[in-house]
Structure formats: C-alpha cells, structure tokens
Specification:
14 helices, Heat Shock Protein 90, alpha+beta, five-stranded mixed beta sheet, rod-shaped, about 20% strand, six-stranded antiparallel beta sheet, 2 domains
Length: about 525
C-alpha cells in the first residue's frame, strides 16, 4: 500500500534523525560536563594557590616582623653565637611565633650557621638555599627538601638581618608541610585531585590528598619513585601521562610549585557509561515504538486487506443470493402465477382441486428454497442446535447432494468455550473449505476432524484431490483461501494448508480461553 510505504519511509527517517539527535545530545552533554569540571577545577586551583601564596607570604612577613622586633637579641647572637642564654631566649620566642616550625638558625651570608646547637638540622640544600637568598632575595624561590636528621619534608623561609652592615646575616626558619597538605586537601573538590608539583628536573610531587596516587596507578599512570634521605620513605616523580589529563594548572608565585587539578578517571568513565546507557535507552525505546508502529501499520494493512476480502465475499454472497432468488424463487413464483391464470377459467371442482394441489406443491418448493437461502445467509441452527450439530447436518446434506464422500469425527467437544462470533466464523471457514474441496480439488473423499484440547480448538480437513501449488500454501492467492485467512484472523486463529503427494491437508487452530 502507498500509505504503508510512505509511513515506513517516515519512520525510518525519524529513527535515523533520533539516532543523530541522541549522538549530538550526548556529545554536547559530554563537552558541557568537561567544561563544567574544568571551570570547577580552575576555581579550585586558583583559590588553593592563593591560599598557599598567602600562607608563604604570611610566614615571610612574620619572620621579617620578628627580626625587626628582636633586632637586639639577634645582633647579640651574631656578635656572640655561643651565648647560650640568648640562644634559649631566641628559641622560646620563635616557638611562640612559629609553633609548627622544624628548625631555625642564624647564618652568615654564605649559609654557614652561627648557632652550633642546630647545625645538624641544616643540610647542604638549606645552606645553598640561604646562599642564593643572600645573593638575591627577590629571586629566591620556596621549594621542598629533606633534612639529614629526618625524612619529613620541609621548606625554608628567611629574612635578612642587618643587610647594610659589614657582616650581613640571615634568620633562617624551616617549616614542615603539614599546613600545605591541609590546604591542598581542603582545596580538592569532589571527584578531582590536586597535586602540588615541584617543576624541577625531574618534576616531583610535593603534596596531594591521601589515596590520590593509588587511584591513578590503577588506571595505568606510572609514578616513578625516588628515595628520600630516609631509605624507608619514597617520593614520587610526576608522570608525563598525567599532564595530558590535567585540566587546570596554576604556578604558585615565589615558589617552584605548580598546582595541578586532575579529574578522577572513574568520573569520566562513569559519565561516558551513563551517556551510553541513556542514549541506548532512548534508542531502544524509540526502536520499540518504531517497531510497534511498523507492526501496527502492517496490521492495519492486513486488516484492511481482510476487510476488502470479507466485503468481496459478502458481495459475492449477495450476487449468489440474487441469482438464486431470480433463477429459483422468482421463476417458481412466475410459474405458479401462470398456473393460476391458466386454471382461472376452470369451473369444475376437480379442476380447482388439481389447481390447488399444484399450487401447494409449488409453494412448498418455494418455501424450501427460501429456507435454504436464509440458512446459507445466517445458519440459525448454530444458535439453536450448536456448532457441532450444524456441521454434522451440513456434512449429511452435502454428502446427499455431492459425489464426494465426507467422514466427520468430533472429539472432546465443549461448545461453551466458544463465543457466537467464533462459532459463526469457524462454520464459514468450514463451509468454504468443503466448497473449495468439492469444486476445485476433484476429490472423492474428505476426512474432517474437529476436537478441543485444554489450550486450543483444531479443525482438520484432509482430501485426496489434486493438491495445491506450493506457493499457494505459503501465500494464499485464491479468493476462497483469502476469505478463510481473513476470517481466521478475525477470531485470532491460524489457518495452514499443507499440500501432499495426494491431496491437501488444511488445519485451523484457535487458542481457547482458560
């Protein structure tokens, strides 16, 4: 049908459009997801870097302020480094100012400590750091390193003492990274990780939230390990593979640190999976609706074809009834009328009696003919006697009028399980099968079996005629076969023809209500 063809094209184009729409929607969602996470990462990195900068500058300011306040004490220690009382007083004041400090000392410009009590905590790296600070304090960069006496990492903050004198010195204070760790962990947003990386050669991870390394190791990012001062401790080298996963970075001013935000791999994978599930669900739903549409259109096409077939059958039945009425009933009535006109002039009692008897015989024939026509149009015997008795009566009547032998077997019959529409359509199918068999199959014998099981009704008709072409058994071509198929669909039954070497087997299966 043209309607079906156009509808199929429309549904196909709609499905393709939905597929592309889902793909574009998923891509747009993915880009929005990355964009939003990048925006969050930028805010996280910037705010955390600013907090670290503020923390470092605050330490520098406090040390400078402390040096100005305690200028006399510091000058005394520079002149007399072995003054134990002054040293203890300085230590008490530094502990009050900086309770989380690691080490402190006063050094010469070349980094040589003046206070012998803390010499063992001041390693070569710290001395180089002091020397570089003395040369150009503005270019001094804060970074992380170890101490000879502890594996804990620390960073150095210092300020100049009497820079204009002949013996410029440096007040040196080292701090553990505990506060830096807290800032990094506090700035880490959900499903992200912050890494504080020293961009030296090689780049070394200085701080990260707990568990960050394990997450990325599981996803194939290799962190190389280097030993610290304590052989039982390790530090991690930042892998190049994670640079590609970094979505936001920020260099912390006056330090060698770069703060990097890396999104958790599981978050991206789970979001992609969610998009795939959503897209698949939408496509599956639309596919189901599309297939239902195809099925409905096909069903409508079948039903419209069935309707035409039934209407054609009804029209043919009307034509046959009209011919029967014209050829038999109307002919008999005309003959009866002529007899009445012929005997109208007879006066004898004998002639009148003969005329009345002839009229009575003619009326009986007309009555029987009309009764047969009415019975063909609507077999009232189904309502009065039931389907099984109507079929038996039809078989007896057909056997008396035809040369084909009909054998009927009815088993396990319970007519109460059928409604009126099912009874009428089963009988019409039965009529059509017997008519086709006697008219077209040239059969001499027809075996009919009608029985019920717990689940279905089965009507089986087998003849010994010429059979059907194989094509007709798969796709009915004749008008009678189409009528049978149409009536079967009306009652949700299944009609099947099987052609054999000698004859044809027809079966009708009707599912029964339990």
């Amino acid at each position: 049908m043209i309607f079906n063809k156009n509808a199929n094209i429309f549904l196909s184009i709609s499905f393709i459009t939905v597929v592309f729409t889902v793909i574009l929607y998923s891509l747009d969602n993915y880009h929005s997801f990355i964009k939003n996470n990048k925006l969050l990462a930028e805010r996280s990195v910037l705010s955390t870097a600013r907090e670290i900068e503020f923390f470092i500058n605050e330490r520098k300011h406090y040390i400078s302020l402390f040096a100005n306040q305690e200028k006399e004490l510091l000058s005394e220690l520079i002149r007399n480094p072995s003054n134990i009382q002054a040293h203890q007083e300085l230590e008490e004041k530094i502990n009050a100012y900086f309770p989380n400090r690691f080490a402190f000392t006063i050094t010469e410009a070349d980094g040589n400590p003046l206070l012998a009590q803390n010499t063992e905590l001041i390693g070569g790296t710290c001395r180089k750091d002091i020397n570089f600070f003395s040369q150009d304090s503005k270019k001094h960069m804060v970074y992380v390193h170890s101490s000879p006496k502890t594996s804990r990492l620390h960073f150095d903050v210092m300020t100049s003492i009497m820079p204009d004198s002949d013996t410029p010195s440096v007040l040196f204070v080292s701090f553990f990274l505990d506060d830096i760790y807290r800032l990094v962990e506090h700035g880490t947003i959900k499903n992200h990780h912050l890494f504080l990386v020293n961009r030296g050669t090689p780049p070394i991870v200085e701080a990260a939230a707990s568990g960050a390394f394990d997450i990325y190791k599981k996803n194939g990012h290799s962190f190389k390990m280097i030993p610290s001062i304590d052989k039982n401790k390790i530090r991690y080298i930042w892998p190049d593979s994670l640079d590609q996963k970094t979505i936001s970075t920020y260099m912390v001013s006056d330090t060698r640190w770069e703060l990097l935000d890396v999104i958790k791999p599981e978050l991206v994978k789970n979001y992609i999976k969610r998009l795939l599930y959503q897209g698949s669900g939408i496509l599956l739903l639309f596919l189901i609706v599309t297939l239902a549409g195809f099925w409905l259109i096909k069903r409508l096409g079948i039903l419209s074809g069935d309707t035409r077939s039934i209407l054609d059958s009804v029209e043919n039945e009307r034509r046959r009834v009209a011919m029967d009425l014209h050829d038999e009933v109307l002919s008999d009535i005309s003959h009866l009328r002529r007899d009445c006109q012929k005997h109208n002039t007879e006066d004898s009692i004998t002639g009148l009696k003969q005329t009345a008897k002839s009229i009575d015989n003619e009326l009986e024939l007309i009555t029987n003919t009309i009764r047969n026509i009415i019975d063909d149009l609507h077999p009232q015997s189904i309502e009065i006697l039931g389907l099984s008795e109507t079929i038996r009566s039809y078989c007896r009547k057909h056997y008396e009028q035809q040369t084909m032998k009909v054998n009927l077997i009815i088993n396990h019959w319970n007519e109460t399980r059928l409604n009126q529409a099912e009874k009428l359509n089963i009988f019409r199918v039965f009529q059509e099968i017997i008519h086709n068999t006697s008219k077209h199959a040239n059969a001499t014998q027809c075996d009919i079996e009608l029985h019920m099981t717990q689940q279905k009704l089965i009507l089986s008709v087998k003849d010994n005629g010429v059979g059907l072409p194989a094509l007709n058994t798969k796709r009915p071509q004749g008008r009678g076969m189409k009528n049978i198929t149409a009536r079967a669909r009306i009652i949700h039954a299944k009609a099947v023809w099987i052609t054999e070497k000698k004859g044809t087997v027809f079966s009708l299966e009707l599912p029964l209500r339990t």
